[in-house]
Amino acid sequence: MLQVNNIEVTYMNIIQVLRGVSLEVGDGKIVTLLGANGAGKTTTLKAISGMLKTEEGEVTDGSINFNGKRIDRLDAADIAAMGITQVMEGRRVLGHLTVEENLLVFAHHRKDRGEVRSDVEMVFDYFPKIKRLRHGVSGYLSGGEQQMLVIGRALMARPKLMLLDEPSLGLAPLLVQEIYEIIKRINAEQKIAILLVEQNAIAALGVADYGYVMENGRIVLSGSADRLRNDEDIREFYIGLSSVGSRKSYREVKHYRRKKRWLA
After folding, report:
1. What's the pTM value of the predicted model, to 2 decimals?
2. pLDDT of amino acid 146
3. 2-252 classified as CATH 3.40.50.300
């Protein structure tokens, strides 16, 4: 479905952020992109969704294809119309609107009003916690409720591919688990492919089919979620467990033993 082919991204014609990044997302699959802050994960999503242009960024080399069509030269609106929806980091709700109004905003381009109302109820079925708040002002929701709302809002666009940026950020562990269970259910029932950017490797690899690890604007490791979850480097550097099971902080991990392997 999605092919990112050896792309480079530069901001303001000066700052190179991505250096030869390649990845794929298969039809109906969940793929995760892992890495620390500043690795280039969000920039990768913005390159796919066309949002780079709002920040003076540009894909300067390589290409991005979606369902066989090149999209890296298209505007964000055209890319969204093809079925790619990005859920931005930071739970960007329209705080002055109600929960239900937020959902309807993302269906403004649709003419099938009856199906739009049906999709609102579908969102509430996935996220019953926000159903009782449907007429409440979204700016007053908790962080977890706002995260549920922005994912539900993306569903209203009926995407073929959803780009999720740090859905676990700032949330309690139990709430993270709940949201990821819903993400997995959405993928299974709606057949929506998902590219998931995360620092929380445990949560992301728990639902993903395949994963990539990014560092300093490059992909340094890739493989099935099962293989990455059991990889010693991943366990030590991203999850914080050494081979003998002791807990480590990032500062204690003095060197990430990159093998630059491409796992089948």
Report:
1. 0.86
2. 93
3. yes
Angle between helices 113-126 and 143-155 (to 10 degrees): 140
Q: What are the residue ranges in the chain where pLDDT is below 70?
A: 237-264
Helices (H) and strands (E) in the chain, counts: 10, 10
Q: What is the pLDDT of residue 127?
A: 95
Q: What sign for the dihedral angle of Cα 169, 172, 177, 178?
A: negative
C-alpha torsion angle, residues 218, 82, 71, 27 (rounded to 10):
50
Place of tokens 């688990």: 177
Q: Give backbone dihedrals phi and psi of 66, rounded to 5 degrees, phi first.
A: -130, 120
Q: Among 186, 185, 221, 184, which residue's Cα sits nearest to residue 204? A: 184
pLDDT of residue 235: 73
pLDDT value for 142: 92
Q: Which residues pair with 137 in a beta bridge?
A: 98
Cα-based distances in Å from 3 to 26, 125, 127, 150: 9, 32, 31, 25
Q: According to the model, what pLDDT value does residue 113 have?
A: 82
Q: Are 112 and 71 in contact (CB under 8 A)?
A: no
